[in-house]
Design brief:
There is one protein chain. With about 160 residues, the protein is mostly helical. It has a single domain, classed as Ferritin, core subunit, four-helix bundle (Ferritin). The protein is built from 5 helices and no strands. The chain has helices at about 5-30, 35-60, 80-110, 115-145, 145-160. Helix 1 runs antiparallel to helix 3 (about 80-110). The longest helix is centred in the last third of the chain and has 31 residues, at about 115-145. The N and C termini lie far apart (about 40 Å). About 30% of the residues are buried. The mean pLDDT is about 95. Bound molecules: fe (ii) ion (2 copies). One fe (ii) ion (FE2) binds near residues 16, 19, 49, 52 and 96.
């Protein structure tokens, strides 16, 4: 029988692909506004989320748990402003942190050493993800309110490499 942690990890694969989809939706929002740097940043972010999903996929295979692919839902976010996108990104990462936290405590409950060790990477990643989202909000609030400031922020975000 499949353990709870294994089925939760399968759900997390779905959540990571849904994260990718949310960020792709944000990229599309910026493309409509001709903010191609922001869009590029969010497309990279979407790719990163797919990477997270695949990390879990590989882990499940390594520990011989069956991978079960669940349907990916459409993003529900309907942002109207740049700041809403940035705020929703942070809220989403905080939500994911809660999911990772639930996974970790379940692994602990099941005394699953491998899962705990695996999840440590995701804990560090979530610190980074939240910090990245907060930084964008801060930069936007400081520089983004003038057309010139927004333009240079767009150029800066367009330079994101990975
Ligand atoms: Fe993620
Ligand atoms: Fe993320």
């Amino acid at each position: 029988m499949e353990s709870t942690i294994a089925s939760m990890l399968n759900t997390q694969i779905q959540k990571e692909f849904e994260s990718a989809y949310i960020y792709l939706g944000f990229a599309a929002f910026f493309d409509m506004k001709e903010l191609s740097g922001f869009s590029k940043w969010y497309k990279k972010q979407a790719k990163e989320e797919e990477g997270h999903a695949m990390k879990i996929y590989d882990y499940l295979c390594r520990v011989n748990h069956p991978v079960e692919l669940l349907p990916i839902g459409a993003p529900r976010n309907k942002p109207e402003t740049v700041l809403q996108v940035l705020n929703q990104s942070l809220e989403h990462e905080e939500y994911v942190t809660n999911l990772i936290s639930a996974l970790y405590f379940q692994a602990e409950k099941e005394k699953d050493l491998f899962a705990k060790n695996f999840l440590n990477w995701f804990i560090s990643e979530q610190i980074e993800e939240e910090q990245k989202a907060r930084l964008l909000i801060g930069k936007y609030k400081t520089f983004g309110s003038t057309p010139e400031g927004l333009h240079s922020l767009d150029l800066e975000l367009g330079r994101r490499i990975e």
